[in-house]
Amino acid sequence: MILSTTPTIEGHTIKEYKGVVTGETIIGANVFKDFFAGIRDIVGGRAGSYEEVLREAKDTSIKEMMQRAQTMGANAVVGIDIDYETIGSNGSMLMVATSGTAVVI
């Protein structure tokens, strides 16, 4: 499966548009990660625990979108957009929504 944020894939002609596909993931950041990320913010540096949670949510969302595209008979997804949002009380949950157009190339 070829994935692209651009509307076309260089060297390939889009033969068929299958439709819009999405993937959504919501992941909670646990209390310990919040605590240690807060300390990291005070002393400086990167919040590695949050980065890992963010990567996991993005990867899961993309995988879900790819599976939906394959179910539709597509072999590529173009025009991919990834949105990040915090939800829940005090922004305790991270939502990643991925969307794109399933196509056959």
Secondary structure class reads alpha+beta
Proportion in β-strands: 35-45%
Strand count, sense and barrel status of the largest sheet are: 4 strands, mixed
Query: How many helical stretches?
Result: 2
State the end-to-end CA separation.
10 Å
Q: Number of DSSP strands?
A: 4
Q: What is the share of helical residues?
A: 25-40%
* Structural shape: elongated
Order of helices and strands: EEHHEE
Mean pLDDT: 85
Provide the gyration radius in Å. 17 Å
Low-confidence stretches: none
Order of adjacent strands in the largest pleated sheet: 1-3-4-2
Which key phrases capture this entry?
2 helices, 105 residues, alpha+beta, 4-stranded mixed beta sheet, elongated
What features would you describe in this structure?
The protein contains two helices and four strands. The chain is α+β, with helices and mostly antiparallel strands and 105 residues long. The longest helix is centred in the middle third of the chain and has 24 residues, at 48-71. The radius of gyration is 17 Å and the shape is elongated.
Summarize the SSE layout with pairings.
Blueprint: E1 2-3, E2 16-28, H1 31-43, H2 48-71, E3 76-87, E4 93-104
Parallel strand pairs: 1-3
Antiparallel strand pairs: 2-4, 3-4
